[in-house]
Design a protein that fits this description.
The complex is a heteropentamer of chains A (about 240), B (about 110), C (about 500), D (about 575) and E (about 500).
Chain C: H1 3-24, H2 30-56, E1 61-68, E2 71-77, H3 79-102, H4 109-128, H5 132-150, H6 156-187, H7 200-224, H8 232-235, H9 241-250, H10 252-268, H11 270-276, H12 279-298, H13 303-323, H14 328-359, H15 370-373, H16 375-389, H17 395-409, H18 413-439, H19 459-477, H20 485-494
Antiparallel strand pairs in C: 1-2
Chain D: H1 2-29, H2 34-39, H3 46-54, E1 59-63, E2 70-74, H4 76-100, H5 106-125, H6 129-147, H7 153-184, H8 189-192, H9 199-213, H10 222-228, H11 231-252, H12 261-282, H13 288-311, H14 314-348, H15 354-368, H16 374-389, H17 391-421, H18 433-450, H19 455-461, H20 464-488, H21 503-514, H22 527-533, H23 536-546, H24 549-568
Antiparallel strand pairs in D: 1-2
Chain E: H1 14-28, H2 33-58, E1 61-64, E2 75-78, H3 80-108, H4 114-140, H5 144-162, H6 168-199, H7 204-209, H8 215-232, H9 241-247, H10 250-275, H11 282-304, H12 309-326, H13 339-368, H14 379-382, H15 384-398, H16 404-418, H17 422-447, H18 462-478, H19 484-491, H20 495-502
Antiparallel strand pairs in E: 1-2
Helix pairs in contact in E: 1-2, 1-4, 2-3, 2-4, 3-4, 3-10, 3-13, 3-18, 3-19, 4-5, 4-10, 5-6, 5-10, 6-8, 6-9, 8-10, 9-10, 9-12, 10-13, 11-12, 11-17, 12-13, 12-17, 13-15, 13-16, 13-18, 13-19, 15-17, 15-18, 16-17
Chain lengths: ~240, ~110, ~500, ~575, ~500
């Protein structure tokens, strides 16, 4: 059994049985995939038809933030939830105290971080017509945040907790606010008013990108900041 | 056609492997990774479906949006799970001070 | 809602509201609690009497409340329910008075009296139930409301007894539920009516109906303590005496017996049962119970346990009467025993409680000469015991008489034999108690003599058994009068075309 | 109309007084008035005598509400019995009154005394089945209180034996009555006359009333009860209450209307055996009361024989009835006067004068049938009856009657001897016991002579042959007794019925032990739970196993596959 | 504005958006979080009542997100089952909100660990509000993929909530819960893939109208069902539930047991009974019924032998969930009341009763500092209302009349006996018998006041702990008497469901 620590070397009978079953299952599903070639999605045409009303040119963004914007709204909440969850669990423990950081790394990060922010902003803007958008931008931002965290630069650490919270909530709140605003204007949740779709989506995406970036960075930090907005084991 | 099939089957195999790892291995990190592999497999199949019916360059944007959402969800859950695992490790280590350096969660507790 | 419906509701509320208020009362306000209890019970008696009169003159009391299609709550005042309701409400008043005296100074009284009132509410509900679903509702609630009373003492033993009680009661309830639903799926919603369901179903669903009948009887038989299902009753004796009185005479056992009556007379109807041919089964079980209970009672030295086994035996007279459902005389005997057994048994339990509370006597072997110390209590006890044996002119004789006549009319000689043997056995376990108490010589001091006062015990403990003992004799002596349990039962039986 | 109703009410009240007076007085015993009750005790029996003397025959009163239909009435037989019982109860209450002056337990005694009196009177007047049964039961159970009065171990045992037998009798009677009522559909005694056909009912009635008169298999209570009861109570028992059994037979199996030869044979056999048995066992008793009890068994045996003869056919029944009543009257008076004599002896101690001894000897030998006494008249009537009935019975009586007479003589002499040895009971001499005895003695001596209804039998017995026939057994008995006393009596051969194991004990202890208190259903709380808890380790383990990821994976896979198979219909 | 009209379908978004905003605000602010949450819960209840009124007046409604009709956009809709679930969530949620307030303020009043408890409260509110939003979203959703997102929302917040207490046991349980939840979601997503491949639509309404007999659809259904079953903790996959539910904080336990499992079950119910009823075969239904039956018995037996109160209650959930599945094989019985409505009704009754029971258990835990069953004696003296609530909730779980549980069981019995499948009836009856054993095993302890017991005064905070539990228990009790009302809502206007079940099956 795996308890002995040799699990990765040899499989016992039970595990073999499991393996067999998994293989059966995979083969069965594979057969089904193979035998059902798939039909032409109804949606594709619809998306193509409605593209022009969506306010953006990229179909993916249109689906994400307009046609199925409600999904995305909830999804942003999922991300926020992850942060709340981690914060409720533990305090941040990164970075490990006392590890030496080479000056090269410091320098590189100092150089890279603003560039990454720029790239992120570009990606968000680009999202309206090409591949890109809030998530991509947010990911880059998050990476920048991680770099800053790794190098113990004061950037993130000195931000007060309240500001962090605001930053985290900014995107979702903006999104929800926009949705509600649309509800009042057009009677539909996220039903962007005609013509206003483009910039509203951009607004939402920008807010979300900031929040997503912050979220990812804070997830990396692995816990809540303590009260004085300074990481627990700040030297 | 065949491309999508290959993608799909690869995704399926990834799913199966992930699943097998999930149920066989007891280490929390492995489990988290296994789940990630599984989700990757599912995303792969999903992305593959986007190509199916259309010939020239056009893709179905809906699966893409779905995959994007899925990835975000996966990231969130992974993060949460990792931190949970760490926390479990911390608490179990604090109860067993001798094993602090080992970093291994007792298997019994995870099963 | 017309006045009749208000009456039904207020009959239920007259004990429910005091019960709820009592739950909220602090422990110290015993005076207020007593007043509430007594007022509630007097009001209930008055209301029930009004209903009796109404029923006698043919007024229809009925409330229907449909829950879902097929499940309807129906409260109904017919002569049979009036009988049970009157019995319960009268005995409740006495038991309340007794309990107030009995529990004087003991802890958790507001809890006790709260459940006490609820229990009676539920019992009256059983009496008034107009269909099987309503009956089931109150039947299950009865288990719940009596359980806290059974474990009132809080000892390990009482908890075990309570647990056992629950297991039995809930198993019975489960069987009952199963049967009720099955019956409904076959014959549709069943209201209690003199005719029973149409006999056309018997041809199509004979076997199922027999099975359902057995299940129904098992369901109510648990509370009525028919023999294989009686195990909880002797154990429940750990409860305080008023609770035992309540269990045996007013509520639980009676509810079971009443259920048997309802099932036989109103759900199936004697004619259908005759066609199905299941009545001998009931009769057999009842006879076995009668004899078994008596024999077991013989072996007990604990007074209350002996009384408990005696209850097992006596309540089955009712079942015996019902097993001869096509014979009006037997039905009269069974029905009237519902009242009579209640009166006699409550007397006995009051007296046993008096002995325990005043002198600390729990065992029969400690009772030598106790009648000299407590003559009135033992006089009441003797009346109850003689009634149980069936000595005229007590009420016990009246029921036996009608049962025997009914048995003969049905051509079942064994009924008379069972009655005779059971009388003998009853004598065997009651007469020694009496002789001990009256003519025995006190050899050692009473186990714990607690009360020394003007009367032999507290007045509130003394009066209820004397009243019930008086009724035991009086109801027998005036059995033939216009107003007596027997007369009412005859009135009931006239309503059935047997 | 109103006057008729009033009259009916008046009759009802009049008849109710007979049983009601003792009952009311019994109720008064439970109140602080009990001291007064003692003084007026004899008054309780007075209404009975008054009614018996004055009420017209055929007086009937209905009390509809009473106990499923109460019906009272006085017929000829009832009048005789009421008269007899009233007289004996009167004497007994006088005697009791003097006894009670020194007794602390008077309330209890009074209560039971009065209650049994009430029962006795009530059953005589009852014209309904249930009424008869009610008062019969009342009397029987109340008599238990009298028997046990002394409170000694022996008395309690005697009471217990009595109670068991009474209970058996009650149950038998109940069963018999219920069958009778079922088969006739009526609750009135008059309607069931001659309705008894089933052997079962016969047997049940024999048992039900036989207990009261000590018929043979059911005689066990009599000796100890007479021995242990206070003497006035014993007198009432022997003189009045016993008769209730006879009356019962007469009521439910009215002679002349019922004929049942086999049953009659059974009665005769049982009676004859009892007659002999009573005598033989009596000789071994060393207590006067017990000896009287045995004599009662024997005499009642004779009465049973008479009754059995009456059952042979209708004709015989008509003849037997007066004989039976005659014998009953004779026996009651004689036996009660013997008890009062015993009382006298007991209150005086050894110092009985010869006069007194010989005075007691008279009723004693009257019982044996000494010529010119009631006994002789009764026995000649008996013989006359057998003559009427024809051969087998006549032969029997010529053989049987002298033997019982001899035995009774021996028994009575034994009694007298014992009486002389009786130790003084009580603290002081009781006033009036002499007077009471005298009254009863006179009654015994003259009643039959003065009773017009018995005139036929009296005149019948007055002939030399009859005289001789009556005398020789008595004389022979005397001789035999002397011989027996001389040669056979031994100390160890005394019987003490009280110590015998009774059915009651057997039921209580043997039977109970057999069934051993096994709490197989009740001791274990929720056997179901304990049964479940037997599985606890397995359950816990399996639940743990189900939580393992591998097992989870397995079940997940299996679930997937199962559902795939089910849904895809592969 | 049209939006605020009674007839406006836009009210539908409120149950999602309001808790969402409340959650964000709760996270943002550190004070007055309770007030925000309470306001959201109350408004939620009001809106749901309004929606119910809407349903009764106008029948089922649809609300298109962003104004896009399906297949393009996402649709929310109300119908009977959805509204009943919403009502259940709103009522239970309100009670839990109040209870949680009492719970945390009691714990914070203990100075020793005030900090930790304050922190727990701090994060409890946003998590709970987002969970509420997720649940409401799930119940309203009419889109397969949207369901996935809401499931994730629920899963993550539930796992975080389960871990809130921070004890090792709860962390472990929560970790496992998270993984299971993820596995379930992935399986579900896998199912969506098949669904999308076969039909290319995600809207439930459209899926329902398709001739759904293809291999892909069936596979999709299997995968989605298995994923949902995993989250619903049906018998062989229930392993994660008891530790997660039992080790969480009391209000969290109530949420998890009463609401969260119902969410995934509700979707399963929709797929099986509304969307793909014609795809489902009777053997499959029997299979589910069998699993349900085993769950009923297994859960009850395990509950009987637990030594801790909360674990017992958790196992009772396993058992009670089985009842929902027992109704499956009876689905095709046509009678007075369609069986699918029974399922929802049972879920409703169970939600109220179980949350009341967990609340009571939590209060007892707070009061005594432990929940070992054998040491529970004397609680009645100090917490009479809690014990009463426990008892009434127990009555409903046991299925004694007149509780909601009784009516549910009655309907199940009627259906099973009416279709001559008496074995299900036997299981139902046995299950309730076993339930009575485990309920009263505790009850007998709670009721007893041992000799020389010194009364522990209950504190003012307990008012907020005791009354919500009692209220819910009473609701579960009187649900039986008012059963016709929820059943009326259920059937009202859901013609599609009704039609399918009365005659639309192969």
């Amino acid at each position: 059994m795996s308890r002995t620590g040799k699990s990765h070397k040899r499989l016992d009978g039970f595990q073999r049985l499991l393996l067999l079953l998994v293989i059966c299952m995979v083969m069965l599903l594979g057969y089904i995939i193979w035998s059902t070639p798939g039909s032409k999605p109804v949606l594709t045409d619809a998306v193509a038809q409605m593209q022009e009303y969506s306010g953006v040119e990229s179909p993916v963004t249109a689906v994400l933030l307009n046609f199925r914007g409600y999904d995305t709204l909830l999804e942003v909440m999922v991300l926020l939830l992850a942060v709340i969850g981690t914060w409720s669990l533990t305090e941040a423990f990164f970075p490990v105290q006392g590890s030496e950081i080479s000056p090269v790394q410091m320098g590189a990060v100092r150089l890279l971080a603003p560039v990454m922010c720029l790239v992120a902003a570009y990606l968000v803007w680009q999202g309206s017509h090409l591949a890109g958008g809030a998530f991509q931008g947010g990911a880059i931002l998050g990476a920048a945040g991680v770099l800053v965290l790794v190098t113990e630069l004061p950037g993130l650490r000195t931000i007060p907790v309240l500001s962090l919270r605001i930053g985290l909530v900014l995107g979702p709140l903006l999104f929800t606010g926009t949705a509600l605003f649309c509800l009042f204007i057009t009677g539909d949740l996220l039903g962007y008013p005609k013509g206003a779709g483009g910039w509203m989506i951009l607004l939402v995406e920008t807010g979300c990108a900031v929040s997503i970036g912050l979220t990812l960075a804070l997830l990396f930090a692995g816990g809540r900041p303590d009260k004085e907005s300074i990481w627990k084991n700040n030297p | 056609m065949i491309t999508t099939l290959i993608y799909s089957l690869t995704g399926l195999i990834l799913f199966g492997m992930g699943f097998f790892t999930l149920i066989i291995h007891s280490h929390p990190l492995r489990k988290i990774l296994a789940v990630n592999v599984m989700s990757t497999g599912v995303f792969l199949i999903l992305v593959a479906t986007a190509y199916i019916p259309l010939g020239e360059g056009e893709i179905d944007p809906v699966p893409h949006a779905m995959v994007l959402t899925g990835i975000v969800v996966s990231v969130s859950v992974t993060a949460l799970a990792l931190i949970l695992a760490c926390r479990i490790q911390e608490t179990s280590n604090s109860s067993l001070p001798g094993r602090k350096q080992q970093g291994e969660v007792p298997e019994e507790s995870i099963r | 809602m017309n006045w009749g419906q208000w009456l039904l509701v207020s009959i239920l509320l007259s004990s429910f509201i005091p019960g709820i208020i009592i739950f909220g009362l602090p422990e110290e306000k015993h005076r207020l609690r007593t007043v509430l209890n007594i007022c509630g019970s007097i009001a209930k008696i008055a209301l029930v009497l009004i209903m009796d009169i109404g029923v006698y003159f043919g007024h229809i009391f009925e409330i229907r409340l449909s829950i879902i299609p097929g499940v309807e709550l129906l409260l109904n005042g017919d002569p049979l329910s009036a009988l049970f309701a009157t019995l319960s409400s009268v005995l409740w008043l006495l038991t309340t008075v007794y309990a107030v005296g009995y529990l004087e100074g003991s802890p958790n009284r507001s809890h006790f009296f709260g459940y006490f009132s609820l229990c009676v509410t539920v019992t009256i509900g059983i009496a008034l139930a107009g269909n099987l679903v309503t009956f089931l509702l109150f039947y299950e609630m009865l288990t719940l409301t009596t359980y806290p009373l059974v474990i009132h003492r809080g000892t390990e033993k009482s908890q075990r007894a309570g647990g056992n009680y629950l297991i039995y009661a809930f198993s019975g309830g489960a069987a009952f539920l199963f049967a009720v639903v099955s019956l409904q799926t076959i014959v549709g919603p069943v209201d209690f009516s003199a005719a029973g369901f149409p006999s056309s179903f018997i041809e199509s669903h004979g076997a199922a109906l027999i099975l359902i009948f057995i299940l129904l009887i098992i369901g109510v038989g648990v509370k009525a303590a028919l023999v294989p299902l009686h195990g909880w009753l002797p154990q429940a004796m750990v409860a305080p005496a008023p609770v035992s009185a309540l269990l045996h005479a007013v509520a639980v056992v009676k509810a079971g017996a009443f259920g048997i009556i309802r099932i036989v007379l109103d759900v199936y109807g004697p004619q259908n049962l005759l066609l199905l041919g299941v009545l001998p089964l009931l009769g057999g079980v009842a006879s076995i119970t009668i004899l078994y209970g008596s024999i077991r009672a013989l072996q007990q030295d604990d007074l209350k346990r002996r009384l408990a086994f005696s209850t097992i035996s006596q309540v089955s007279y009712i079942a015996l009467g019902m097993s001869l459902a096509d014979q009006p005389l037997a039905v009269i005997g069974g029905l009237v025993h519902l009242v009579h057994q209640g009166l006699m048994k409550i007397t006995l339990f009051f007296c046993a409680g008096n002995l325990a509370e005043t002198l600390g006597i729990h065992r029969i072997s400690e009772m030598n000469g106790v009648a000299r110390r407590m003559p009135f209590t033992m006089a009441a006890f003797s009346v109850g015991a003689l009634g149980m044996i069936g000595i005229p002119p007590t009420v016990g004789f009246v029921s036996k008489w009608y049962l025997g006549l009914g048995g003969l009319a049905a051509g079942n000689w064994w009924v008379v034999a069972v009655l005779a043997v059971s009388s003998l056995l009853n004598a065997c376990y009651f007469l020694p108690i009496l002789t001990r108490a009256w003519f025995g010589k006190q050899q050692e001091p009473w186990p714990e003599e607690q009360y020394i006062g003007r009367f032999e015990t507290r007045l509130m403990l003394l009066v209820p058994p004397l009243i019930t003992a008086f009724i035991v004799i009086a109801a027998g002596v005036v059995a033939n009068a216009q107003v007596s349990p027997l007369a009412w039962v005859r009135f009931i039986v006239r309503g059935y075309t047997l | 109309m109103i006057s008729a109703e009033l009259q009916a009410m008046g009759h009802a009240l009049f008849l109710s007084l007979v049983a009601g007076t003792p009952l009311l007085m019994a109720a008064a015993c439970c109140t602080p008035m009990k001291k007064t009750v003692v003084h007026f005790l004899p008054l309780a029996a007075v209404p009975a005598l008054v009614v018996a003397m004055t009420a017209p025959v055929g007086l009937v009163a209905e009390i509809g509400w009473f106990f499923m239909g109460g019906r009272m009435g006085l017929d000829e037989i009832g009048r005789i019995f009421l008269c007899l019982s009233g007289f004996i109860w009167l004497l007994a209450s006088f005697s009791s009154r003097s006894m009670l002056k020194h007794n602390r337990n008077q309330t209890q005694y009074l209560f039971f005394f009065l209650t049994s009196m009430c029962g006795n009177f009530g059953l005589i007047l009852a014209r309904g089945l249930l009424g008869y049964y009610l008062f019969f039961a009342l009397m029987s159970f109340a008599a238990y209180g009298l028997i046990i009065q002394k409170g000694t171990e022996k008395a309690r045992k005697a009471g217990r034996i009595y109670l068991v037998l009474v209970m058996i009798g009650e149950v038998a009677l109940f069963t018999a009555l219920i069958i009778l009522v079922y088969s006739t559909g009526s609750l009135a005694i008059d309607d069931i006359a001659g309705a008894v056909h089933q052997p079962l009912v016969f047997a049940l009635l024999f048992i039900g009333f036989g207990v009261k008169i000590g018929a043979l298999p059911l005689h066990g209570w009599m000796v100890p009860a007479y021995q242990e009861a206070p003497i006035p109570a014993a007198a009432a028992l022997a003189g009045a209450m016993v008769n209730a059994g006879i009356l019962g037979w007469l009521r439910f199996l009215p002679l002349g209307l019922t004929s049942y030869p086999q049953g009659g044979l059974f009665f005769i056999a049982a009676g004859a055996l009892a007659a002999v048995y009573g005598v033989i066992t009596g000789l071994y008793h060393k207590q006067a009361g017990a000896v009287l009890g045995c004599s009662s068994i024997s005499q009642m045996g004779l009465i049973t024989v008479i009754f059995g003869l009456g059952l042979v056919d209708h004709e015989a029944g008509l003849h037997a009835t007066p004989v039976l009543i005659l014998y009953v009257v004779h026996h009651s008076l004689t036996k009660s006067s013997l008890f009062f004599g015993y009382d006298l002896a007991a209150s005086r101690g050894r110092i009985l004068s010869h006069l007194q001894v010989s005075a007691i000897l008279l009723p004693a030998l009257a019982l044996a049938g000494l010529p010119l006494t009631g006994g002789a008249i009764a026995k000649s009537a008996f013989k006359q009856l057998t003559v009427t009935l024809g051969e087998p019975w006549y032969g029997l009586s010529t053989f049987f009657l002298p033997i019982t007479a001899m035995g009774t003589t021996m028994l009575m002499l034994h009694f007298i001897c014992l009486l002389r040895d009786t130790e003084k009971r009580g603290n002081s001499e009781r006033a009036g016991s002499g007077i009471i005895f005298t009254v009863s003695f006179i009654a015994t001596a003259i009643t039959l002579w003065l009773w017009p209804a018995a005139g036929f039998f009296v005149s019948n017995s007055l002939s030399w042959t009859k005289f001789w026939q009556a005398l020789w057994p008595v004389a022979g008995g005397c001789l035999l007794f002397l011989a027996w006393r001389r040669f056979f009596i031994r100390e160890k051969q005394t019987l003490d019925d009280v110590k015998k194991q009774t059915i009651f004990d057997i039921v209580l202890f043997r039977f109970g032990n057999l069934l051993q208190e096994k709490e197989w259903q009740t001791t274990q709380q929720g056997r179901f739970i304990s049964y479940l808890s037997g599985f606890v380790p397995q359950l816990r383990r399996s639940e743990k196993i189900m939580g393992r990821w591998k097992v989870v994976g397995l079940s997940y896979l299996l679930l997937c596959l199962c559902m795939l198979f089910l849904l895809l219909r592969l | 504005m049209t939006v605020f009209q009674f007839s406006s379908p836009a009210w539908m978004v409120c149950p999602v958006i309001l808790p969402l905003i409340a959650g964000l605000l709760c996270f943002l602010f550190s004070h007055r979080t309770f007030a925000i949450a309470l306001a959201a819960a109350l408004t939620n209840l009001l809106v749901v009542c309004l929606l119910t009124g809407q349903l009764l007046v106008f029948g089922p409604m649809r609300c298109h997100m962003g104004g896009w009709q399906p297949p393009l956009g996402i649709t929310l809709r109300t119908d009977g089952p959805a509204l009943l679930m919403l009502l259940m969530t709103a009522v239970t949620g309100l009670a839990i909100t109040l209870y949680a307030r009492g719970y945390f303020s009691y714990r914070i009043s203990d100075p020793r660990r005030a900090g930790r408890h304050q922190r727990q409260q701090r994060y409890f509110w946003p998590l709970w509000m987002l969970l509420l939003a997720g649940l409401n979203g799930l119940f309203l959703s009419n889109d397969v993929f949207n369901v996935y997102v809401t499931l994730e929302l629920i899963g993550i917040s539930a796992a975080s909530l389960a871990a809130l207490s921070g004890k090792p046991a709860s962390l472990l349980a929560s970790f496992r819960y998270l993984l299971v939840s993820l596995l379930g979601s992935l399986t579900y997503l896998f199912g969506i893939v098949f669904l999308y491949r076969s039909n290319g639509v995600l809207d439930l309404g459209l899926l329902q109208n398709l001739a759904a007999n293809g291999l892909g659809i069936r596979t999709a259904l299997v995968l989605m069902s298995v994923g949902l079953l995993l989250k619903t903790a049906l018998f062989p996959l229930h392993f994660w539930l008891p530790p997660a539910h039992a080790n969480a904080l009391a209000p969290v336990s109530a949420i998890l047991s009463a609401l969260v499992v119902k969410g995934s079950f509700y979707m399963l119910f929709r797929f099986w009974f509304e969307i793909f009823p014609s795809t489902i075969t009777q053997p499959t239904l029997n299979f589910m019924g069998t699993l349900g039956a085993v769950a009923v018995l297994w859960g009850a037996v395990q509950a009987i032998r637990q030594h801790r109160l909360k674990l017992m209650v958790a196992y009772s959930t396993v058992s009670q969930l089985g009842y929902l599945f027992i109704a499956f094989p009876l689905a095709r019985v046509d009678g007075g009341i369609p069986v699918w409505s029974i399922v929802i009704f049972i879920a409703l009754a169970h939600a109220c009763a179980k949350s009341a029971m967990f609340m009571a258990a939590g209060t007892v835990f707070l009061h005594l500092g432990h929940d070992r069953i054998k040491d529970l004696s004397g609680v009645r003296a100090s917490l009479p209302i809690t014990v009463f609530a426990y008892g009434i909730a127990g009555v409903s779980l046991m299925g004694l009349p007149p509780s909601g549980g009784f009516v549910g069981k009655w309907l199940l019995l009627t259906a099973s006996l009416g279709s001559s499948q008496w074995w299900w009836a036997l299981v139902v009856i046995t299950g309730s018998l076993l339930a009575s054993i485990y309920v009263f095993r505790v009850m007998s302890r709670l009721f007893v006041i041992p000799e020389g017991f010194s009364l522990k005064k209950s504190e003012p905070h307990f008012r907020l702990l005791e009354w919500p539990a009692l209220a819910l228990a009473l609701i579960s009790l009187f649900l039986g008497l008012a059963a016709s009302w929820p059943l009326h809502i259920l059937v009202h206007g859901t013609t599609t469901l009704a039609q399918v079940f009365v005659g639309g099956l192969p």
